[in-house]
Give the backbone structure.
Amino acid sequence: MPNPTSKLTWCKARLGEDMNWWIKEISDPVHWDVDGLGVIDPRQFQHILDLIEPLSDYGLQTDIVEEAFYSFGIDEIEEDKTILLKRIKDSILDSDEQIFALPDVLDEEKGPYADFIDHITKLRIKLLNDLIDFSKSLTVEELEEEIRETQNADYMEGRASHFFNEISAILEYVPKGFELDEDEESTGPKSEDEVLEKDLADVDAGTEVEENIVADETMKWDEEEEEEDKYEETTSPPDEDAEDEKK
C-alpha cells in the first residue's frame, strides 16, 4: 500500500472571513478531505510555540510536537489571493522559513496530532495544578469537556473548528473563577537552587534593614549625649572667687 504522505506535496489555501487559512485544494484528495480542513499560518504557529514554552518545565516532548504537523512554505500567491503551499522537509520547530503547519489528522483518534493534543492537555493540567491552589485537583476530563462544549457550539452555529483555535484554547485554558498571572505561567516550578537563592536574598535584605536601624539608633544616642553635655555646662556651680569679689 503506497504511503499517503508521499502524495502530500502541495496544497492551496484561502483566507477565510474568520482570518484563518483553510485548505481549498490538496495534492492527495483521496486521503485528505478539504471540507473544514484548516492550516496554521506562521504567525499563529509562533504564538502556539510561545504558549507551549512554559510546558517545557512539565515534561514537554518536542518530538511529539514535530510529528504532529506537516511543514509547508509559500510557493506562489495567485490572483485571487489563494496561496500555493509546497511541502518542505525543514523541522517545524527550527526552520528559518515562514512555516504553514498542517496537522496530521489522517487518523483523527490515534494519529500524531491526536497524540499532540493529548500531550499538551495533560501538561496544561499539570501546570495549572502546580500554579493554582485548587481545593480539588483539576482533571483532564474537565478541560476536555469545556473544549468539546465550545466545538459543539461552533458546529451548531455552522462554524468549522480551526486547529489554531483548538490548540490555543487548550494552552490558554484556565477554569472559570480563577486567574493565572503571565509571570507565574512563564516561570514554572521553582528549583531548589532558585528557592535557596530567594531565601538568601531575603536574609541579606533583613540584615541591611537591621544595620540601618542600628545606625539610626546610634545616631540618636549621640544626639542625647550631646544634649547632656550642654546641660551640664549650663548648670555647673558658680565660681567661688567671683562671688568673693562681689562681696
About this structure: DSSP finds eight helices and six strands in the chain. Confidence is low (pLDDT under 50) at residues 188-196, 213-221. The longest helix spans residues 192-234.
